[in-house]
Amino acid sequence: MKYEQVYSFLIEKLQTGLPSYTTYHDVSHTLSVIQYAEELAASENITGDELTLLKTAALFHDAGFLQSHIEHEMLSCKLARKYLPDYDYTEDQIESICSMIMSTKLPQSADNQLSQILCDADLFYFGDDDYPAKAEKLYKEFHHNGMIKNREEWDQKQVEFVSEHQYFTKVARKSREKGKQKNLFNLVSKLEHSKHLKKNSISVNLLKDAVSMVVGVVIAAFALKGFLVPNHFFDGGVTGISLLLHEIYHINLAAVIILLNIPFIIVSFFTVSRTFALRTFISVVLLGICLVLLPQFSLTHDKLLISIFGGAFLGIGIGLVMRAGAALDGIEVLALYTLKRTSFTISEIILGINIIIFTIAAFQFGIETALYSILTYFTATRTIDYVVEGLQAHTGVTIISSKSEVIKHQLVNTMGKGITVYKGERGFLPGNFDESADCDIIFTVITRLELRKLKNLIAEVDPRAFVFANTIKEASGGILKRRNRH
Question: Are 35 and 83 part of one and the same domain?
Fold first, then answer.
């Protein structure tokens, strides 16, 4: 058996052929396993051909990562069967090596001394002082390969695996068990701490949602009692229908708002979620209570001010409730329910319902009132957008330029933005359709307030750059900042 020659061959292959994302099962891991296997073999008096077979198995045990992380032990055996005959390994020796490699597959199952030594050497790091650093490398590799979704899942799996693991050899148990138990204790403590933080975070978020919900309901009630109701103005959706019924039939506004929303809350229980339905029910009931307790008063009789500020306050209230994961108006639930049964979009369905509301208002109370009510609805809608999305709602920007390298540098280093680059072709102009060139298509995410700065930056680099932007309803992850302060 020409171990030294196959060692040089495979180590060079691992150094050049392993993917860059293989952060744990790399060459250094293979070298460590070989070293640990030799140490354990010395304590177990393993010498001669048996030692060579053990070292060869350690050398090849993760070679399968050259091809794939899936069933890598089996792939390692295939590579061993492919290459080892060229280095004077017999068929029986190769099968012995493959048996040792397969024993390292989790959960480990070693049925002979050499396999036990290799299994212990493979997980020797469980008892290392630098276990956290090595575990971090393994996490990154697993996460890249889609084997782990997040840190919480990873911490849980570590605790489960380390607590269930047992070393096979006496030497490993004697030299590593104490360190392993120390690492396990730290893992359990970290997991418990994470659960505690998560629980506290959930409690804080629930409190924030509750405050946002209550404040939103009070502001919405203030808008209705202080602006819309005293001046016979209307809104869209269920609130608009409730106001119409209140004005035409003099039905108690609080009661009619609650009663009209209940069917939509029931629908949302099945079509959206139980939590959303419960929070919406609480919000609607709170709104009814506020409307009963809050006296009716008119802050102004100026119809323009009523339309703008009444709509703005109503939008702020509804928006705050929406940020708490609820709704004060069931019209969007109806639109979502209808969407699944018709070819109309949600916007078209809501628009159609509101047209009916404002048409009835025009016939009953005059065209002027209906038009001012439309302005109220428009103001409320725009305000809701700002409250829910924030002034800094994210905007996706795509840039195509012949000076893409300079623009990329400016975006990352001047504006501190993360970018994604697509490979494409530019050109194909009228009269010169056959002329094109490869180009980088740059995509980045910014806030509304940064859009002007970005345009100015691009204009300085390449005034002819093609730039287009679109609003992103929700963005997370990457290097997005939670809230920029300007």
Answer: yes
Task: Please give the backbone phi and psi of residue 407, each rounded to the nearest 5 degrees, phi first.
Answer: -65, -40
Question: Are 412 and 309 members of one domain?
Answer: no
- SS3 of 182-214: the string is HHHHHHHHHHHHHHHHHHHHHHHHHHHHHHHHH
CB atoms < 10 A from the CB of 439, how many? 18
Structure tokens given for 201: 């975070």
Tell me the C-alpha distance between 389 and 370, whole Å: 28
DSSP type of residue 108: P
Would you state the pLDDT for residue 329? 83
CA dist 474 and 472 (Å) reads 6
Residue 478 maps to a domain: no
Residue 476 lies inside a defined structural domain of this protein = no
Do 13 and 131 belong together in one domain? yes
User: Domains in the chain: how many in total?
Assistant: 3
Which residue, 221, 215, 226, 216, is CA-closest to 239? 221
Contacts of 361 (CB under 8 A, 6+ apart): 234, 240, 244, 369, 370, 373
Tokens 């590799």 belong to 141
Question: Which two three-digit tokens encode residue 377?
Answer: 């609805």
Q: Are residues 362 and 418 in the same domain?
A: no
DSSP state of 90: -
DSSP per-residue codes, 361-430: HHHHH-HHHHHHHHHHHHHHHHHHHHHHH-TT-EEEEEEE-TTHHHHHHHHHHTS---EEEEEEEEEEET
Q: What pLDDT, on a 0 to 100 scale, did the predictor assign at position 382? A: 87
In this prediction, residue 226 carries a pLDDT of 93
Angle in degrees, CA 353, 322, 262, rounded to 5: 55
Provide the domain limits for residue 467. 394-471
| 228 HSE (CA, 13 A, CB side) | 34
Cα 432 to Cα 440: distance, rounded to the nearest angstrom: 20
- pLDDT value for 484: 41
**Beta-bridge partner residues of 308:** none
Blockwise average pLDDT, block size 10, the chain, 486 residues: 90 88 89 91 89 92 89 91 91 92 88 90 86 88 83 84 87 88 87 77 84 94 94 89 91 93 89 87 94 90 93 93 86 63 65 87 91 92 80 79 88 86 80 77 84 86 88 62 41
Does 251 share its domain with 323? yes
